[in-house]
Design goal:
CATH class of one domain in chain B: Alpha Beta
Largest interface: A-B, 40 and 49 residues
Helix content of chain B: 25-40%
Oligomer: heterodimer
Number of strands of chain A: 12
Structural class of chain B: alpha/beta
Distance between the termini of chain B: 35 Å
Largest sheet of chain B: 8 strands, mixed
Largest sheet of chain A: 8 strands, mixed
Order of helices and strands of chain A: EEEHEEHEHHHHHEHEHEEHHEEH
Helix content of chain A: 25-40%
Strand content of chain A: 15-25%
Shape of chain A: globular
Structural class of chain A: alpha/beta
Order of helices and strands of chain B: EEEHEEHEHHHEHEHEEHHEEH
Shape of chain B: globular
CATH architecture of one domain in chain B: 3-Layer(aba) Sandwich
Number of helices of chain B: 10
Radius of gyration of chain A: 22 Å
Number of strands of chain B: 12
CATH superfamily of one domain in chain B: P-loop containing nucleotide triphosphate hydrolases
């Protein structure tokens, strides 16, 4: 279902490469307990999400806080067992192999945290931080460990490594800390990297440096990357496909350029409209923002979860039935009733607004 | 009131040679180093720069919210022409801070008192600064402010933890507004918020500005969002102000090499240009270099950069960079680098 955009690094289209990770009807629900026992309901953080990730493909999951993107990430990292549905890595359910299977799976996955300072233990030197994952996978030889640490540090441009090996996290700048986090994620040569807002805590000037570094590592290692962010303005520099999440559901899937230039879902349109490019004209006009806030995930609204905030909502449809994914354009799936043939007329208002965007 | 410049009026805020140094175990940190700055009535200035460049310290120096380890705190701060540095701390607290200048602190959503109802917190500054206001009147004004910033009135009796981040941010803004100050200083008001909430808050701030003519000083590292509010732009680097210009010309073409590189590092939603980053690190403020503080990272560096550049006036914009020195004929731009920034 995917073809490549100009930003694609590899020659072969991602869709022709084997599937690395497959998420099938995943539900991550958290139990709510009344007085500590007795089930009082669920927080439906991720509700029926499916997608395939191919080898060497970079995808971005975009959404506001509370939309379930972190829960989805935790499930993919094997940290939270799903309520229902499956996560298949190279065809194997990651939770089927028990603890040993999970441990092996985690050695295949690198994780780049959002807050580098919080993610690095303050009392461990860079060398120990990077050595530990190797000890865990059973690299017994000290010299070999050190050689691998040096290699990965060169790769994330912490060079010369000698300058950094014995430093503690607080002695490093924010950008250097994030490099250590990336080095730790890369040291076991993973096939998949999950990056949770890797640059949101960094200054603008460092941000670009880290994004470029991640891109370079991804290309060199043919790494599959799941890039989780709320900032649509950085995804273009990094990913081939974008999934937009809202209130636990993926509401739009498209290739990056396709989504940025031809958004289809009213929520995606609102997100794109809210982002500013530096321009003095911004100060003279108000931005259009949908009213209200994202819904509670305990009792999400029936039908389309965005309908209470959506100005195009169709009464009797959007507030009753959950919209399926409509193939609205090439390589573009949109979960919105407006794209049903029956509602071509109602769609005109949205299309007029989409026309303004371009 | 409009946001147009009123050149004849005296500035709302003016600082002259403002200095704020901190004492630390490692030495003296020169956080704010001889900053001259002006803000005209009804305008909004954004102060941008990397973390650690002294922008929050500058706000604190203006508001006289100082920690204990102050080493030097000198210079002049004028508010509506009044020299407020001459006031003693008690007068400053009673008549200036929050009465005429208020602050929306960094991470304001977490700065609310968790055990007080938000209505009481918003009303509190009024009760302190306006002696003849009764509690009922203050709460009524708080209600008015809530309506103004777009918080439902039913939220008045809630506690902060019952509100979302965006709503708490609005409460903090309401608290800053309630005394009808001349100037509001906003320290990273939207950096912890989602894009939609961020756009919402910016809309609220714009409406307040258009309707009340309040002046703003917005401190942020997010250049793209700052353009939502900016009439003027001030760029800080390593404790110094390096460029001060109107937003129109700044966003079109920044002059200072640092400002140019900062702009080139801003990701654009649909642009095609490659992003650039600024190599190296800002200098330590413990022992900053004697000449231009950006020289080590500057691609246009030349001999003169070993001396500290003054502020040069270029078409009404101020730039602290030797590239903009005028030669004997009064022409600037004899240095080749200037021509590259078309």
């Amino acid at each position: 279902m995917t073809t490549m955009t100009q930003t694609a690094p590899q020659a072969a289209p991602a869709s022709e490469r084997p599937v690395l990770l497959s998420v099938r009807h995943l539900k991550v629900w958290y139990e709510l307990r009344k007085w500590g026992f007795g089930l009082a309901g669920y927080v439906k953080a991720v509700d029926d999400v499916s997608f395939d990730l191919h080898e060497g493909e970079a995808i971005a999951i975009v959404g506001e806080s509370g939309c379930g993107k972190s829960s989805l990430m935790k499930a993919i990292l094997g940290l939270v067992p799903p309520h229902d549905g499956q996560i298949l890595y190279q065809g194997q359910d990651i939770f089927a192999g028990g603890r040993a299977g999970l441990r092996w799976y985690r050695s295949q996955v690198g994780y780049v945290q959002q807050d580098p300072f919080g993610a690095l233990p303050p009392f461990m030197s860079v060398r120990r931080i990077l050595e530990e994952p190797l000890i865990l996978v059973g690299v017994k030889d000290r010299d070999e460990r050190l050689a691998r640490i040096r290699a990965v540090m060169e790769e994330v441009k912490l060079s010369p490594p000698e300058d950094f090996l014995n430093k503690f996290p607080h002695m490093l700048s924010g950008g250097q800390q994030q490099r250590v986090v990336i080095a730790r994620a890369m040291i076991r040569n993973p096939k998949l990297m999950v990056a949770d807002e890797p640059v949101s805590m960094l200054d603008a000037s460092v941000r670009v440096e880290i994004l470029k570094l991640l891109r370079q590592i991804q290309e060199e290692h043919n790494l599959a990357v799941i890039y989780i962010t709320h900032d649509l303005s950085t995804v273009r520099y990094f990913s081939e496909r974008i999934f937009v999440m809202y209130a636990g559901k993926v509401i739009e899937k498209a290739s990056t350029d396709e989504l940025l230039w031809h958004p289809q879902h009213p929520y995606t349109l609102a997100l794109l409209n809210a982002i500013s490019d530096p321009d003095a004209a911004n100060a003279r006009k108000l931005r259009e923002v949908p009213p209200g806030e994202p819904p509670s995930l305990v009792t999400p609204p029936p039908g389309c979860r965005f309908h209470p905030r959506c100005k195009y909502a169709i009464e009797g449809e959007c507030d009753v039935n959950v919209p399926p994914e409509f193939p609205t354009r090439p390589q573009h799936l949109t979960a919105c009733w407006l794209y049903d043939e029956r509602y071509a007329q109602q769609r005109q208002a949205l299309e007029a607004d989409l026309g303004d965007l371009a | 009131m409009s946001g147009q410049p009123s050149t004849s009026a005296q500035p709302v805020l003016k600082t002259e040679d403002l200095v704020l140094y901190f004492r630390t175990t490692k030495g003296v940190v020169q956080a704010v180093d001889h900053v001259d700055f002006e803000l005209d009535e009804g305008r909004a200035v954004v102060v941008i720069g990397e973390s650690g460049c002294g922008k929050t310290s500058f706000a604190k120096a203006v508001l006289r919210l100082l920690p204990r380890n102050v080493h030097t705190y000198t210079g002049r701060v004028y508010l509506d022409g009044q020299d407020i540095m001459a006031l003693d701390d008690e007068d400053f607290r009673l008549h200036i801070r929050w009465a005429k200048m208020s602050l929306v602190p960094q991470a304001a959503m977490n700065a609310l008192n968790p055990v007080l109802r938000v209505s009481d917190q918003v009303a509190e500054p009024l009760l302190i600064h306006e002696k003849d206001v009764s509690r009922e009147e203050a709460l009524e004004r708080a209600r008015e402010m809530f309506r103004f910033v777009g918080v439902p009135e039913s939220f008045l009796s809630r506690y902060p933890f019952e509100l979302s981040g965006g709503m708490r941010q609005r409460v903090a803004i309401a608290m800053a507004l309630i005394t009808r100050p001349r100037l509001i200083i906003l320290d990273e008001p939207t950096s912890a918020l989602d894009v939609l909430t961020q756009a919402n808050i910016m809309n609220v701030l714009k409406k307040i500005k258009w309707e009340t003519g309040t002046s703003y000083m917005l401190i942020t590292h997010d250049v793209a969002t700052s353009s939502e509010l900016a009439d003027d732009v001030a760029v800080m680097y390593a404790g110094q102000m390096v460029e001060n210009a109107d937003a129109e010309s700044f966003f079109k073409e920044p002059l200072h090499p640092y400002a140019r590189m900062l702009m080139a590092a801003v990701p654009k939603l649909r642009g095609d240009e490659d992003l650039e980053f600024i190599p190296g690190q800002p200098p330590s403020l413990l022992d900053p270099p004697t000449g231009c503080r950006f020289a080590d990272r500057c691609p246009f560096r030349f001999d003169k950069c070993d001396q500290d550049p003054p502020m040069f006036l270029v078409d009404g914009r101020k730039v602290k960079c030797w590239l903009f020195e005028k030669d004997a004929q009064g022409v600037y731009g004899t240095q080749p680098a200037v021509a590259t920034g078309d």
